[in-house]
Known about the structure:
By secondary structure, the protein is an all-alpha fold. The chain has one domain (2-8, 31-253). Helix content is 73%, strand content 0%. It has helices at 2-16, 29-34, 39-57, 63-78, 81-95, 99-106, 113-132, 138-159, 183-194, 202-227, 232-265. The chain is globular, with a radius of gyration of 19 Å.
Amino acid sequence: MIRREIELFFNALRFFTRMPVPRWVGHSTELLNHSARYFPLVGWLVALVGAAVFLVAGLALPVSLAILLSMAATIRFTGAFHEDGFGDVCDGFGGGWERAQILSIMKDSRIGAYGAIGVVLMLIAKFLALLEMGEELVPIALLAAHPLSRFASTTLIYALDYAREDQPDEIARAKPLAHRLSAGELACAGLLGCAPLLLLTGLEAIGVVVMVVMVTLWAARYFRRRIGGYTGDCLGATQQLAELAVYLALNFSWLMTEAEDLSNSI
C-alpha cells in the first residue's frame, strides 16, 4: 500500500519535472492516471527549489536578480512544462475559432505570436508581483502558490471531460491524464495543495482562496464552452493563471495590511 503510493508520487514527479526517480518505479498509464493526487506535492518540491535559490542568491545579489534566478530554477526544474502549456493555450484560443482548429493549433509544437507574447507577459507579471511584495515575503508566496496552483489545475481533471477523447492517441500527448479523479483522490490533492495556506494569516488565506477559485472557475467555464473540456495544455495554463492569482492576492492583502498599520499609527 505504502509502496504503491510512493510509486504514484514518483510517477507524478517524473511526469512534471526533470528530476530522476528510482529505477524500481514502474511506468504505465494507470499509474500516471492515479498519480494526479500528488500533483500538488510536486508543487511543494518546485516551491522549495525556488525558495532555496532565492534565499541563497539573496545573500549576494539584489532582490530582483534573486527572484529572476529563482524563477529560472523552477522553470529548469519543471522543464517549462506549465509555461509551455500556457503558451499553447494562448496560441490555440487566440488563433483558433472552431474546436477542431483550436485543438489542432495547441498540439503544434511550434510557438506562435500569441503564445510568445502570452508567456513573456506571464513571466513579467509573476516577476513584478514577487518583486513588489518585499524580500521577506517571497519564500512564503512561493510555498503557497506552487502547491495550490497545481491543485487548481487538478480540479479540472475531476470536473471536466477530456477534450481529445475523440482523437487518435498518437496526437493526444496528455491522453494518460484523461482519467477522471475520484472524490478521494481529489480530497488528497486538496489537502496537499491547501496545506501551505497555514503559512498565511487568515486574511491572506481568504484572499488567496477567493482569487484562485475565481480564476479556476473562469478557466473551467471557458475551456468547456470553447472545446468541451480540458487538455494537458489547459491544465498547464490553469496552473500558471492560479499561481499568478496567488501572488496578486498576497500583494493586495499585504498592501491592505500596510495601509491599516499606517492608518493606526497616525
